[in-house]
Amino acid sequence: MNFSSKLLENAVAEFGRLPGVGQKTALRLVLHLLKQSDADVARFTASLDRLKEDIQYCQECFNISDHTTCEICASFKRDKSLICVVEDTRDVMAIENTNSYQGVYHVLGGLISPMDGVGPADLKIEGLINRVQRGEVEEIILALSATMEGDTTIFYLYRKLREFNVKITTIARGIAFGGELEYVDELTLGRSIATRVPYERHVG
Ligand SMILES: [Zn+2]
Questions:
Q1: Residue 85: helix, strand or coil by DSSP?
Q2: For 120, phi and psi rounded to 5 degrees?
Q3: What does the pLDDT look like over 62-106, one tens digit per residue?
Q4: How far is the CA of 62 from the centre of ligand 1 (A)?
Q5: In a 3-state reduction of DSSP, which class is residue 103?
Q6: What are phi and psi of 6, to 5 degrees?
Q7: What spacing in Å lies between the alpha carbon of 108 and ligand 1's midpoint?
Q8: 48, 80, 89, 139: which has the fewest Cβ within 10 Å?
Q9: What's the 63 CA to ligand 1 centre distance in angstroms?
Q10: How far is the CA of 147 from the centre of ligand 1 (A)?
Q11: b/e for 85-110, b at 16 or more Cβ within 10 A?
Q12: How many whole angstroms from 99 Cα to the centroid of ligand 1?
């Protein structure tokens, strides 16, 4: 693309670095922003500035939060003996949308993937073990994607957790997790959590 302005080119390059945004879309977004009022653009940039500066991760479940403890972990209505382990915050949002889960979460922040250089130490696994060690947890639901990375992570967690007196279950593995949840309807997702099965059954 031949740009008439270096400023325009730089802005398009930044937008173009976002996932799923090609150069044409980036240009369209930047030109759209240019047409907005100063106040609108200021609000847009301020929200991005604050996002990176002020966002926190819950010290208990590592979900993205505005506080040191997220609203789910802080709620006395949630069952703290039941932890649903997920890949990232999108999964928490999808499961919350089902309005059928009353337990709490643990957000790993990714999946074990040797190909991408992601090992267990890069994920919030230690925090999960600590929660189980405290002895209040009765069941762990491993709600991870039905991919090789998801399977590897589930098996790793199972081996880490089986020494504790805690029930380990998984949800129906046909469910797409980790960003593809918008394609799963809430009823199906809610049902697969309700009909979760012990993990041992899968490994024999
Ligand atoms: Zn939390």
A1: strand
A2: -55, -35
A3: 999 999 999 999 999 999 999 999 999 999 998 999 999 999 999
A4: 6
A5: strand
A6: -70, -35
A7: 12
A8: 48
A9: 6
A10: 26
A11: bbbbbbbbebbeebeebebbbbbbbb
A12: 17
Tell me which amino acid residue 167 is. K
Q: What is the pLDDT of residues 8-55, one digit of tens each?
A: 999 999 999 999 999 999 999 999 999 999 999 999 999 999 998 899
Q: How far is the CA of 33 from the centre of ligand 1 (A)?
A: 35
Domains and CATH numbers, the chain: 6-54 (1.10.8.420), 78-202 (3.40.1360.10)
Protein residues near ligand 1, an ion, with CB under 5 A: 58, 60-61, 63, 70, 73
Residue 200, C-beta contacts closer than 8 angstroms, at least 6 positions apart: 168
Q: Which among 200, 201, 193 has a CA at the least distance from the CA of 79?
A: 193
List the beta strands (DSSP E) in the chain: 56-57, 64-65, 79-86, 103-107, 139-142, 167-170, 197-198
Which residue type does 141 have?
Answer: I
